[in-house]
Amino acid sequence: MNYIVDILLIAISAALVNNFVLYYFVGICPFIGVSRRVDMAFGMGCAVTFVISIAAILSWSITVFVLAPGALVTKWAAGFFVSAQEAAQIDLTILCYLVYIFAIASAVQFVEMYVRKFFPPLYKSFGVFLPLITTNCAILFACLTIMSKVVGVDNPADAWDLGRSLTLAVFGGVGFTIAIVIMAGIREELDLCDIPKPFKGPAITMIVAGILAMAFMGFTGVDSGLKNALTPPAQEDVQK
Predict the structure, then answer these.
(1) Which residues have a Cβ under 8 Å from the Cβ of 205 and sit 6 or more positions away?
(2) pLDDT tens, 144-180?
(3) Strand, helix or coil at 155?
(4) How far is the first Cα of the chain from the last one, in angstroms, to the nearest whole number?
(5) What letters, b where the CB count within 10 A reaches 16 and e where it falls short, cover 27-49?
(6) Residues near 98 by beta carbon (within 8 Å), at least 6 away in sequence
(7) pTM of the predicted model, to two decimals?
(8) CA dihedral in degrees (53, 58, 60, 66; nearest 10)?
(9) How far apart are CA 165 and CA 192, in angstroms?
(10) CB neighbour class for 226 (10 Å; exposed up to 12, middle 13-18, buried from 19)
């Protein structure tokens, strides 16, 4: 039951409460650049969700089996050159940025080839922004968050498994899609409005983004409220 509650809380937190774009302000480039039309924004959101999911699987696997201290593959390979005790202490997490960027770039390349072959109009509408998913900091942010939940925990039992990591990635992508589609819908309506000249272009876009961020602040506390409602009280509290 606790595992299901954890998955639910991670999903709600990533999609709404701590939305990657409107809370952490990562992934702003595609959020602003590809939010002029709803159909293009939805396609970009789906592409980012797919890439971030693949990147999460790769980053979790690489972190657990290669980068983390005492990782199975690293310990086995280092065992040929150093003692078993020294091999178990090797920490390669310093390479996380380099490794994660390679993993993200590989996933983006796969998506780009797929979209180019099966959805040529969508590929043309994306333009330069599809390859730029490689440098979308929301994806790297998700990978680094997963690493902090795997390596940076005091109790090894609290380390995230693949299920929790994938939940964060998928619903982080869903939250990105929600934000960019809402933004695109508002910007389509703004094209029909009489906007004062000083606010036209990027200015009104940033104002709308700020208002959206404040609107999403209304979800603050939803995850903690659900946790209190779904988690049974501790035995000590019951006795009191």
Answers:
(1) 32, 35, 187
(2) 999 999 987 878 778 899 999 999 999 999 999 999 9
(3) coil
(4) 24
(5) bbebbbbbbbebebbebbbbbbb
(6) none
(7) 0.85
(8) -170
(9) 42
(10) middle
